[in-house]
């Protein structure tokens, strides 16, 4: 399969992939009439396999079937929908290793993280099964005799999910597990550069639907580019579009969806900081910064990109970090011991280079790293940069393992620095003082959606709500009450008496 | 006061109004440098009083003070903020009659509704006091040992509230009561044509703040026009803008606010239907339709504008309705017995005339009403129109007492008709069958935010969430978990151990 | 295995049972030093297998290990505990058929119900897995600056579960699934007459614990009699005892547990009524009454024992019921087509006979049934009795398929009759009128814990809370917030500032 | 009024009290046929006024009226009931000072605490008003098509409240505010030694009921002794009895109520500890211990009775405490500057004396205090005792200002000491380490219902749930979901279709 020599690709067969693959699952059939694209191994830039993408005409066919399927799916009792999601979880569990391997191969993250990503969908399935008996509405006391007030949650119908390359399947999992138990069909467009993952996950879900004699169109999926994304954004049949990607593209998607009064669930750019206080457990902090800054080669939305060190521990922490950066094993993500894989594409490497140049021109001092590695793959050096908080680059998300380090003198200053960028996804503080912890998570603390203490900025659990404020888009996925976004709320007042009392005691006629 | 001869305006003094008034409450001071406008009595088109509007420069001064006040207000414990809102409620209660009278005078709704509107703010205050001890976050079990996961709710800082003439103060109440207990300052722009209400309510709130030695800038308010609205929409210091108005303007506000990654809470156009089934309690239905269609002279966002009658009871219901329409007393809203007051402005009357013309040109048959009344005021006849559901006018919100009547044969058809317009605010069915009730409130029932049974489309209680889907904008105000929109959610993971286990069991380094 | 000739018992091996079995799982070992008892097939009164029961000394050994294991189990993160429960669910799923068969064989219920009972534990496991990430505490706003208020839920330690023969494993499932994810060890005493089920379920759970290298003592189980039950009730190491059985024994258990300030979760006697209104769907009502009254041979706690028929449909419903009663197939519960199996024991048959005699002596008229069937097994005729609501027998729970029928004239009378017994478990009404439905479930309606409409009194779903009021004991199991009973709640106020403000504004010193 | 010369008792008239008073409010009338008792000022042991107590015959008359009133009250919409409670809150607010003064006079606590106690009822009223729109049931997804599952909360009918002398009105407030908005009538028996408070509070509530033309029997109250308490406990018309008092009497009440399958809400003895870690803010700790141990003369259920000091700060803390104890002003609670008032009765003084003797005989060393003061009143010295944790007296609640001090070496030991008594009400730790805080509030931390950090054991806010575990009785009052105890939960499944699918997929016939 493919021309890639560096890996044994036999495992792809286990998850239904071949050397050529069809990139559209439409009305329960594999079908795609678009151009043929290649899936490329970022470690070698060799082809893994080819995929035929879907066209906008394919999309329309898919959506018609999906709309029809929605009428069925939404009337199936939620716990029965939960049972389907449970079976999807079991199917994933049975293929955890090859799926995790595929994520590592096609996206470029290390195997442990590839498997972790698939595990996250499994966790989501397990969670959603329980949720399927808890999508509770409310019975609210009415001020009028012989009246009852209900808050009822009904399915939306169809949820569109547009995901990014860096979490090529977990984000689908966050959305699809919840959307499905909530009674919605799912329309998925995976990232253009990770089509094999899109296909593998879709196959597995489609098999569960088939085994249960349910319409395949309940889960409709497309490999494709911006035209499919645009079609989803404009489609009035899709009340909710969940989009993961940059703030720039997200803003466009939001505008398009809002123009038709649709809703968005946005997971956009992050620019996440770690603050290390003078009283911090330095060992814990250093390990965390290292994982947060170089893990996934800096390509998580929760990657730590800004580091604020109290002046008293500044040199110490930087020394220890530099030591780790120098020893870190960069290479094939499927090899044991590798901690840093390649950037995802050649254009990511170009971006890194442009970023480094901008850093230098804006007065940044490169403490370690800063170069592209000589290889066929997209490998770059994890980089630490000393720079002013005012530099323009510091306000932007550079999607690569580049860490900006800055010094501060007290908590207020550190929080102000943390909050001084447009993005508001994740943030973390290292401290041992309760008052610092509670200020950090309080009204005048971090303005992010994720506010950690003594752990990295990345590595969220599914039980909480994941997402961020400001230019990160405000969406919340996975746990807590995120499910409410996937449903339509109605406030129902039922008069079962024969009188007509009015609210606020109004007398009319 | 003013030149209006038709009413005794002495009561305006009780609530702090004079013949000239300053339309800006800025940094705790009454101040406004804009043009002088008149508040007009819609029953007579005579001037009640004059008001100096605020300018954009006034706005900027107000916002700077407000931003400063926000730092104080957000750190006051929520139950203490609740105590302030309780005092506001008591202050309103003490002035219920003159305030209700002012609403009737300046907006044009009948006195019972004017008092009901003020009562609604009082109810909101009482409700918000309790809420101030229940703005609960969550403690979520972490999958990692020695970790705790919190979901914390913090204040946003400042909430902008832009309200419309038809509920010139209740909508402020929905927003401000919740926003304040949640720890936010409020910036209010009232409707340009109801400045006296804006000033009267602001005075009363400002006095409570003063009595408690709190910065007046916690509540900042402006009489003014689109320039002030625009300034609010664009202002990065205002994370949430709550806007009530037409879908058209709302879409613009949303676009502007989203461009800066702010959030909107939209209460836009409705186009609300009542369905009467063959088994309905006809007496209850007729009374409800009448109140829903002619109440507030058809100027509620929840006014019933479309009526779907089962063919078997079509003639009967129309006969009874026509009878009521012919007898209804139209006139001075402050006079006893009046059920229909004037439209709010002369341009509303023009709009009504254009609507009637369009109806006729699109094949609508006017069953009763259809004319403007001869008078100095803005009085029009409540109107019933027989028309096809396909007519373009039926898809739009005509803000006047015009009711479109259509016939149907079965529940599915009636629900499809109900759902066939762009708006999705309120809807109601009259039936005595449980299966019809539960289908109506279920996944394939009404697609509106408010889904009633055996009561009118209007007259919501504050305990539920108020708002609508689709072109109505998706916002939810007042009860249920609406308060969450006024707060910033953060998911906090706290590691209190000395190890660094990762989520999803990932092993890194 | 055993001497029973009527069934192929080979399947018992699949679930780890032999002809002799050890009835104690203590500190991860199978061990029991009590007397040997036989498990008897109620269809034949032949022995299935023998079981050695545990002694009070065995109990003490088990509890010491369990107390030790509790320290470990409670500190394992809840989602990890959920993963164990998920594996238990999968293990049950793999043995659904033989386990269901065993329930039918040993308890005597028909196979469909036997399998349904095991399915219910599986459903509980799936539900509990989701719950393991949602055992949420609260963060409550404090009235004091620099204070936070938490409501935290911690494990109790050990939960004692004493179950009855009629649901020999489902009730364990309700309790154990929730207790385990909540962080508690479980001590189970199954019914003395269903030891094989106790052992089979315990084996399966113990294997999951072993596979995960967890202490076996997390799940400690005993076959035994009243001495073990008493030991549990008195044991100060067991903060919560969940007991299912008669009101009489339950009251004793409660007294014993309360004396040591322990807590009880009681599921006691029911005396459940169905009301059929004049407007009811008679076909639906008759099918429901039939299932509710004769299903499980009248040995469910939710069995319908009292039937209130509106006078206008009295004769019609009774006729249809009598027809069904005459045709119902009574016999071996493992045979296809059987709807009524045997009573569980010979003493149940004696009880039935005594009941029939008392009915007759109290003026009851037997409309159908009333006799014991000639056979080696414990078969009796399902019975319908016309009797006055005032008869003493009507106030008691006769654990057999005997249905008391009474006539009424209006809803108020029917509700009064429903509420006129000491028990308060389940109740059901058949009607098509919304006002009747809402009155029935409202403040002056049924006083039971389960209040159904147009379904039988039995057959609860796990998503709701199961249990009843008054002499039924007030416990609630399975869904909703039942989990809170398995945890210890603490209200924590944390001062992270350096001042000491007091609540209610008190000034001290 | 009365013969007390030490205070100006004119203020009693303001709250409706005279020199003789009737101690029963029965069916809306003041009426009592029992013996005449005197209310005594504990500072002087002089009579304040006399009160005629109610008899058991009066009780029966009251309960009959109350049962009748319950039928009305439970059908009034909850928000309307909330409005009544709001008016009660306003009535209390208007009399805050004289009521607080009466509490100080009759109970003996200092004026600031007397006013604080009344303020707590006012807070409860405000809270309950909001709650009256939030007594929400749930709509739970059913696994069966065309079925809906509801969890509905209905009123219990009547709630019995038996309160103790130390919080003669706040505990009534906790219970009555919630019970009333939940739709229950209240039957109150105040403490026999604080009849004037019982009467004053009842008067004020009765006036609100009267003003609203509601039956006075909604609130029924008795001054009386054990016979009235017993009557309440045995009364089948009272589904819930809320009892505050000693563990010993509480156990009796529980037994009596349970025998008739009623429910109890118990607030019994506490034996509350403060732990001071080596890293604590000593100043904060000392102030807190002082308030917790000597406040209310040691007569709060949350009074700190046990003090565990880390060995490294043992001497320092004791020194500072001893200093405060020596200077504390003991005397007339109505006088400015007094921090310690009298014990409530002469028998409390006897009890204190016996306690001191037992302490000495069990090896306790009195570090400061230990004597009764010479005076006409019931004044004793606040006392600090060094004693072994094993001494029998340390396991008991001595209701007087006696503090046992013990030394420890590490957190585990301190927690074990905290948990080593039968009672489980309140507990507190002083520390600055997050790991200590989270262990303390975690599964292996304090086993109490109230688990504080850096604040005293006493002084709870109403937003949380108040109450304790083990011999403290397990009840929870005031905030959180305490309201659920005052309601009857029903799980309702409504079939609105025409089929009869069964749960767990069972097929029957």
Automatic annotation (TrEMBL), chains A, B, C, D:
Pfam families in UniProt: Aldedh
PROSITE patterns in the record:
ALDEHYDE_DEHYDR_GLU (PS00687)
The EC number on file is 1.2.1.3
Supply one GO molecular-function term: aldehyde dehydrogenase (NAD+) activity
The protein's UniProt keywords, in alphabetical order, are: NAD, Oxidoreductase
EC main class here is oxidoreductase
Q: Which domain of life is it from?
A: Eukaryota
Recorded hits in InterPro entries, A to Z, give: Ald_DH/histidinol_DH (IPR016161), Ald_DH_C (IPR016163), Ald_DH_CS_GLU (IPR029510), Ald_DH_N (IPR016162), Aldehyde_DH_dom (IPR015590), ALDH7A1-like (IPR044638)
Question: What is catalyzed by this enzyme?
Answer: an aldehyde + NAD(+) + H2O = a carboxylate + NADH + 2 H(+)
Q: Give residue ranges for domain Aldehyde dehydrogenase.
A: 33-490
The record's active-site residues are 267
The text of the family note is: Belongs to the aldehyde dehydrogenase family.
- Assembly and binders: Homotetramer.
Name of this protein: Aldehyde dehydrogenase family 7 member A1
State the organism of origin: Medicago truncatula (Barrel medic)
């Amino acid at each position: 399969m493919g021309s890639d020599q560096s890996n044994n690709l036999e495992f792809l067969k286990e998850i239904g992939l071949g050397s050529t693959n069809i990139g559209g699952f439409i009305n329960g059939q594999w079908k795609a009439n678009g151009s043929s694209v290649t899936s490329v191994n970022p470690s070698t830039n060799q082809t893994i396999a080819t995929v035929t993408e879907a066209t906008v005409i394919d999309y329309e066919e898919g959506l018609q079937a999906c709309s029809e399927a929605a009428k069925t799916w939404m009337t199936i009792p939620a716990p029965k929908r939960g049972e389907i999601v449970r079976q999807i979880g079991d199917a994933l569990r049975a293929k955890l290793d090859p799926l995790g391997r595929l994520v590592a191969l096609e996206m470029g993250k290390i195997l442990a993280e590839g498997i972790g990503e698939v595990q996250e969908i499994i966790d989501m399935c397990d969670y959603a099964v329980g949720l399927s008996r808890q999508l509770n509405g409310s019975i609210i006391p009415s001020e009028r005799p012989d009246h009852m007030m209900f808050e009822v949650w009904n399915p939306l119908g169809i949820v569109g999910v547009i995901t990014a390359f860096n979490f090529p399947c977990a984000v689908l999992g966050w959305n699809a597990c919840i959307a499905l138990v909530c009674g919605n069909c799912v329309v998925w467009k995976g990232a253009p550069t990770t089509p094999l993952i899109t296909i593998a996950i879709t196959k597995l879900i489609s098999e569960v639907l088939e085994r249960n004699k349910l319409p395949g169109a309940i889960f409709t999926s497309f490999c494709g580019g911006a035209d499919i994304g645009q079609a989803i954004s404009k489609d009035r049949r899709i009340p909710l579009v969940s989009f993961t990607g940059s703030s720039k593209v997200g803003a466009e998607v939001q505008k398009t969806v809002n123009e038709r009064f649709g809703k968005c669930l946005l997971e956009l750019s992050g620019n996440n900081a770690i603050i290390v206080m003078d009283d911090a457990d330095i060992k814990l902090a250093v390990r965390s910064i290292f994982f947060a800054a170089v893990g996934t080669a800096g390509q998580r939305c929760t990657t730590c990109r800004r580091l604020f060190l109290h002046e008293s521990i500044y040199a110490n922490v930087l020394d220890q970090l530099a030591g780790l950066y120098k020893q870190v094993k960069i290479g094939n993500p499927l090899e044991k011991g590798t901690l840093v894989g390649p950037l995802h594409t050649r254009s990511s490497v170009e971006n890194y280079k442009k970023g480094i140049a901008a850093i230098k021109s804006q007065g940044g001092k490169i403490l370690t790293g800063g170069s592209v590695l000589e290889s066929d793959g997209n490998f770059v050096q994890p980089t630490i940069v000393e720079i002013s908080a005012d530099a323009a680059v510091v306000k932007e998300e550079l999607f690569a393992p580049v860490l900006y380090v800055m010094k501060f003198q007290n908590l207020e200053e550190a929080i102000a620095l943390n909050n001084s960028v447009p993005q508001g996804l994740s943030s973390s503080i290292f401290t041992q003082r309760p008052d610092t912890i509670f200020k950090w998570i309080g009204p005048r603390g971090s303005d992010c959606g994720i506010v950690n203490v003594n752990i990295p900025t990345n590595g969220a659990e599914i039980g909480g709500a994941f997402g961020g404020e400001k230019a990160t888009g405000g969406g919340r996925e996975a746990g807590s009450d995120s499910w409410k976004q996937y449903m339509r709320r109605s406030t129902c007042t039922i008069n079962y008496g024969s009188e007509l009392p009015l609210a606020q005691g109004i007398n009319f006629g």
